UniProtKB/TrEMBL annotation:
It comes from the Bacteria. The active site is at residue 49. This is 2,5-didehydrogluconate reductase. Keywords: NADP, Oxidoreductase. Belongs to the aldo/keto reductase family. PANTHER family: 2,5-DIKETO-D-GLUCONIC ACID REDUCTASE (PTHR43827), NADP-DEPENDENT OXIDOREDUCTASE DOMAIN-CONTAINING PROTEIN (PTHR43827:SF3). One of its GO terms (molecular function) is oxidoreductase activity, acting on the CH-OH group of donors, NAD or NADP as acceptor. Residues 16-262 form the NADP-dependent oxidoreductase domain. The keyword Signal does not apply.
Length: 292
C-alpha cells in the first residue's frame, strides 16, 4: 500500500523502509524478519554497521516463513569507507558483502561517505557493479554539492539517490535542491532525529489533532516533503506504527509549523571523521555495529 518513487534509471523504491544501524547481528536478523512479515519492502544496511550477515539471515527466514521471493524485497547496502579507492579492492569487498547478505545482487548500492581522494575511483567500480547486474541502482550517501559535482564530472552514471540526514531539525535545503535539480532522489536517514523530537510540543500537538504519535507525524512530514525515509527500530510494534502513516495528511499550516523547527545542525558531518582531507587514511571509521 505504500507509495513507490521512481529513480532516474526507472527502478522503483518504496518511500518508507527499515534501517538497522546500531543493531547487532542477532537483532538485525529479528528486525528484518519482523519488518518483512509486517509489510515492509525496503531494508537498509551497510558494511559499517557490522550486521549484513544478520540482515541476510533475516531475509532468508522471511522468504522461508512468509513465502516471499527475493524480488519482493528492496535491499540497500553501502560501500565501506575502508574499502574505497582501489577498483579491484572495491569489487572484491562488495563480493564479500553479497555473500554475507546471501544474495547475488542488491537493489541499491550507496557510497557510504565521500572519502577524499577515493570516492571517484570507488564510483567507477560501482558503475561496473551496476553494469554487471550486481546492483539495480547506485547512489551516494552524505555527499555535499561540491563532492557530488566532482563525482558526476568524473563518472558516467548520475547517482540515483543521495541519502542524507533529514528530519524536522535539519533540512539541508541546498543539497536537497541540488539533488532534485539533477534528478537525484533524496533519502532521509535519521528521519526521527534520533528521538530528539518525540517530546516536542509542536509535534505532539499536531499528533493529538490527528490521533497519531509524534513519530508518525514526523515521518508523515518527511513523506509530504517527497523524501524516501529510513526509520530504524528493532521493536515490532514500532515498526507497525511507523508504517501506519498513509491514512492521514498534514495541512499546509501544520507542515509550516514543523518546518519552523529547523536548526541545521548535523549529528555527523565531515569534520567528525579523520579521513576528511586525508586521502591516505580512514581514521577510526570501522565496521562495528555500535561505533557511531
Amino acid at each position: 500500500m505504500q507509495p513507490l518513487i521512481e529513480l532516474n534509471n526507472g527502478v522503483k523504491i518504496p518511500q518508507l523502509g527499515l534501517g538497522v544501524w546500531k543493531s547487532t547481528i542477532e537483532d538485525a536478523s529479528h528486525a528484518v524478519q519482523a519488518a518483512l512479515h509486517n509489510g515492509y519492502v525496503l531494508i537498509d544496511t551497510a558494511k559499517q554497521y557490522g550486521n549484513e550477515k544478520g540482515v541476510g539471515d533475516g531475509i532468508q527466514a522471511a522468504m522461508k516463513n512468509d513465502g516471499l521471493k527475493r524480488s519482493d524485497i528492496f535491499l540497500t547496502t553501502k560501500i565501506f569507507n575502508g574499502d574505497q579507492g582501489d577498483y579491484d579492492h572495491v569489487r572484491h569487498a562488495f563480493e564479500e558483502q553479497l555473500k554475507n547478505l546471501q544474495t547475488d545482487h542488491v537493489d541499491l548500492l550507496l557510497e557510504h561517505w565521500p572519502v577524499d581522494g577515493k570516492y571517484n575511483e570507488t564510483w567507477k567500480a560501482m558503475e561496473a557493479i551496476l553494469k554487471d547486474g550486481q546492483a539495480r541502482a547506485i547512489g551516494v550517501s552524505n555527499f555535499n554539492n561540491e563532492r557530488l559535482t566532482d563525482l558526476m564530472d568524473h563518472g558516467t552514471v548520475v547517482p540515483a539517490v543521495n541519502q542524507i540526514e533529514f528530519n524536522p531539525h535539519i533540512h539541508q535545503p541546498e543539497i536537497v535542491k541540488f539533488d532534485r535539480d539533477h534528478g537525484i532522489k533524496v533519502e532521509a536517514w535519521s528521519p526521527l532525529g534520533s528521538g530528539t523530537l518525540l517530546k516536542n510540543p509542536v509535534v505532539n500537538q499536531i499528533a493529538d489533532a490527528h490521533h497519531k504519535s509524534a513519530a508518525q507525524v514526523e515521518l508523515r512530514w518527511g513523506l509530504q516533503h517527497g523524501m524516501i525515509e529510513i526509520a530504524k527500530t528493532i521493536h515490532e510494534q514500532r515498526m507497525i506504527q511507523n508504517m501506519d502513516i498513509f491514512d492521514f495528511q498534514l495541512t499546509d499550516d501544520e507542515m509550516k509549523q514543523i518546518d519552523a523547527l529547523d536548526q541545521e545542525k548535523h549529528s555527523l558531518w565531515y569534520h567528525d571523521f579523520q579521513w576528511n582531507g586525508n586521502p591516505d587514511g580512514i581514521g577510526d571509521y570501522v565496521a562495528t555495529p555500535n561505533h557511531w
